[in-house]
Amino acid sequence: MWPFKRSKGSPSSSSSSLSDVGAPGSTPYLHFAHSGSSDESVEKRLPSPKPSPPISPSNPPPIVTVPSSESQNSEKSYHRRPFEISPTNEPTYDSSGIRIPYISGPYLISQNSNKKAELTEWSDNVGCSPGRLCTFYPIRGEHKKVTKWYGRMEDGYMVWSSIYLFEWFGFKYYEPLPPNVGGKLAKIPPWLPDLYSLPNLAIAMSYFCVGVALQLLRTPLIVYLIEDKGASPAEVNVLFTVMAVPWCFKVLYGFLSDCVPINGERRKPYLMLGWFIYLITNLILAAIGEPSISAVIFLVFIMTSAYMLADVMTDALIVERSTYETRKGDLQSRGYIIRFFGSTCGAALGAVVYNKNDWSFYLPISMIFLLNGLFILVFLLPFIPYLVELSDDCKPKAFKKQCSDLFETVQLRAVWQPMTFVYVFNAMQIANAAWMSFLVEGLGFKAWEIGVLGTVASLMTWFGIIAYEKYLFESSWRIVFVVCSSINVIIGLLQLALVSGKSREWGIPDLLFALGDDGVQEFLIGIQFLPLCLMYLSMCPAGSEGTTYAMLTTFSNLAGTVAFDISTVLTMVWDVEEETIDAGDFTGVFNLSLLCTVVAPLPLIFIGLIPRNRSHQDKLIAETTRSPTCGIIFISVMILTMLGTFYESIHTVRHSGDVYEEYRRLLTWGD
């Protein structure tokens, strides 16, 4: 162990930094500037060059005097002695191409109560390893109070973490080495591409909580408003509107994090802010007990906006880490596996805890809000202190410059061409808007049966994502879309057997047939989901990850709103009213199901617009072929669709009395 010693003559930095000083091809040096108010630099005792005898009190290592960050660019000279501590003598390089040593460590740098900086070397057998917060005691017994904790440094990459709540916004992290600098393969910390390592575990838990947030409250809220509070159809419509509109905010959240970093960080502060607001709104609703309709609508809007902010930041953290993956897309796929597992848990829990008409046990709505908030406290909060954000310059980015960068991105053929297919494909995946009415009114499904359908759908989507990640990751994207869409057509046609009653003639119960039908379709949708995410991942330029990924996902989601509007219009073509379905006339439902099934595969004629696979997409990106006209069309379609979504929402709110009367019918379970 070698303590830092202070020497006079060089000014101190006001913030901690760790970098490497030297020139390419020369002997590397380690530079550390401690945080403190003293005008002193730091000296570090280092091991002597190989093959020197072991270091001992009688054979101390040479000393390298290292200036603070404020003086590192000055012309002042300082004492240097060469050292070499790389066990393999293989040089590594920092992000500027400067040769640096391999630090075998792990090392801990602590700032004690008397501002004295020390460097401690630890062995792995004390539980200190990459991605773990080490148990630390100062070198000297007189320093009992440790105010900061630092983690392991490898190849010039430094990560530190604090156990104190007030320091959660004060983290400073250093960017990992790029995969290839000067033709030399840099060493990447092993925890960096591992989603389940401690510095990344908060990302995994954030995805899980997003999945729970999407599903847990959905059924209890509708039942509570309609059955307990007597909400009108217009008021129920407002609830659905405020739950849908925040999805359009994702682009704005991306702009916010990229343009306005907080305390030197772009993602983590906004991630924490989003979940904090989400938690507070749940606790407020729980404290009210039985909140009024207006309180529920207002606070659910705030809640949805908050977890959308957290979702955008979680995606951005994944996109930034994907640069250091051996197989690009692994982190993204694992993140969505966790997210859909959370959706499955939320759907199952939500279907059970407030189903008071069919179950003897249920929780009051206040306890459900509390339970929803506890997911954040239990599954996410403990891992927030260890979350590592990869640093860059983190300077505020001008809004005009950010818009210019986005426009440059959407002009690329590698962006607008596949996104054209995505928009058309999603817009033509028209769902049968009368299907729920058919299940409840026509087949007499009860609340728990509807809940089982939703849970199985989420579960099968989760299985589909796992199947793609495990077995189809290297498959052609075009083949995946063609095969899955073709099978979906067959499954969609089988729905006609349920509508016509043929399934009963075959001896298959309605619930079992519906479960199999929906389950297979959702499984295929899960398989198709990940290739799109991998495409989005490759389209994001460095420095604008949050905005670009949010823009691409928003563009895809907006196409889904177009499909919803088309579905609503089609309900006016055939008679799918309650009286008709209740009378046993399913002709309108049959025709609507047939049309939706036939239309769904039509966008496959444009399948050539998407790349065959990741390597093909990389070639398209490398070509840098641009089209300003296509870029303008892309932005225009996104803005017009977004405006249309807002208009449709407002229009439906004002004229929804008759349209949403069906929600009251569908939710009088079994009456």
Automatic annotation (TrEMBL):
Protein origin, superkingdom: Eukaryota
Ranges for region Disordered: 1-92
Organism (species): Triparma verrucosa
Subcellular location: Membrane
Biased composition (Pro residues): 48-64
Protein name: Uncharacterized protein
Membrane topology (UniProt): Multi-pass membrane protein
InterPro entries, per the entry: BT1, MFS_trans_sf
Composition skew (Low complexity), residue ranges: 9-19
Keyword Ribonucleoprotein applies: no
Ranges that cross the membrane: 201-226, 238-257, 269-289, 295-314, 335-355, 361-388, 420-438, 450-468, 480-499, 519-537, 549-574, 586-610, 630-647
The family this protein is said to belong to: Belongs to the major facilitator superfamily. Folate-biopterin transporter (TC 2.A.71) family.
